[in-house]
Amino acid sequence: MGLFDGFLTWFGGLFKKKKDFNLGIYGSPNVGKSTLANKICKDFSGEILSKVSEVPHETREVLKKEKLTLQVDGKLLTLNLLDMPGIATKVDYHDFLQFGIAKGKAQKRASEATKGIIEAVKWMDTVDAAILVMDSTEDPYTQVNLTIIGNFEARNIPVIVAANKIDMKNSNPAKIKEAFPQFEVIGISALTGQNVNALYDMIGKKVS
Amino acid sequence: MEIEFISKDALAKEGNALEYILSSIEDGKIVVLEQPLDSESEKTLISKTMDKIDSKFSGIEISTLRKSKGIKETIFEMLGERRGLTVIGPAKLVKEIKQNPEKINWKTK
Predict the structure, then answer these.
(1) pTM for this entry
(2) Of residues A93, A114, A118, nearest to B55 (C-beta)
(3) CB 3.0–4.6 Å: which of A39, A53, A139, B64 could bond B36 by disulfide?
């Protein structure tokens, strides 16, 4: 490459748009992904991103907070935060009826949930890093968690495991550490904010 | 209940293995594969399942046993050999699943 070509490449690079960094929040339904997305957004932008509900599949499309700037470990990180629909291998509209949702609305919710899962799965090829949220009151060794981890490992994508709901009496984050010893597991409560600073520090280490 | 055991050679002969598996599951069968599905196939299977869900078919349950990753297993994988097994069945048939890296336990309804 000649000196002039080199100068052009350098000069062009000054104006080239930097690729956005996409951080995806993944996990099964009802593990607290949207609660965590809201906590992160609230802490760093003062706004919330997602509606939260005890009814599974409340988030049925990928919700994106663009250009969120996180101040972690003395550094500023600008990224797009993506709250993903919960990934599942089954969606049964009957499950929604128990929450008092009418049949027609339950069927619509189920149909939207399946589309949301497809969208979340597609994004697995695009995100640059992931927070995999697990419910620390439940058995973590599920096929959905294994599939998510397997896909990110295959792409060498950094994954932080957030063992959520440590404010609950029957929480057992140690079980998650035992099941997935290859990952950094941070016990948090997205609801109360307990230990989320440790999660932010880990994001700083993994993302920068 | 019908259980279909499929060897890796038989599955390799199927033009579209995932479609074949899903059609067996839609017929109400539990399918046992001689090898674990790779992560990419698991992901594709989830998407294909979501496309098929309606008021009659609510999806699948799946459990995979994989040999833990070591040097030997990595070499096997590089040679295209995945050791373990996969169990897939209709979600409506399965009541409870317990699994760990060494054992899968399915209770049906």
Answers:
(1) 0.89
(2) A93
(3) B64
